[in-house]
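dumping this here before i forget
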Amino acid sequence: MKYSHTIVISLIIAACVAGGLYFYFSRGTNLGLSSASPALFGTTSPSGTPQGAQNAGLNGMAPLPETYTDSDYGFSFQYPENYEVNPLVSADGRTILTAGQKGNLGFGFQVIITPFDEPASHITAARIAHDIPGMEVKDPTPFSIGTAAQGLSFQSTEDTGPTREIWFVAGGNLYQVTAPIGFDAILQQIMSTWQFK
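structure:
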């Protein structure tokens, strides 16, 4: 099934990118992160909030004055200031990494975009569980961006802790958005600004 191969390849690419980002951010870089900074997805406290997030004001709403526009895929979204958006192009799609830069804040989200030749109705908890055994799909709820994109929002768990996953289909592509669960309020705010042209 082409979908399962796409998902497996996407997960392998995501794991490689996440490992590279962890190595990159944990060493400290010219992005202003100290060597004590957490990885892109950070670490969470027992309450599920990213450590350091309380002091950075990430538990609630944040101003979103910046806009990322992707002319190749025809979408845009707003994001907080002091964040950097880095699109990485690969042979089978694109990965967009968004990471915080203020103080020791190393939290953000990633978007993996891959070709997908099936309808959005195929993005279900049962389908994900079938194609990716062992992936937790907790509290799945329908997700949409107007009539342009439909999919599923759910919680899962990575090695770094609980995550928010938002998977949706638009324009023949599968979009897989992942962020630490403690970043959920801001991710939901960012996703509410996402628009397709």
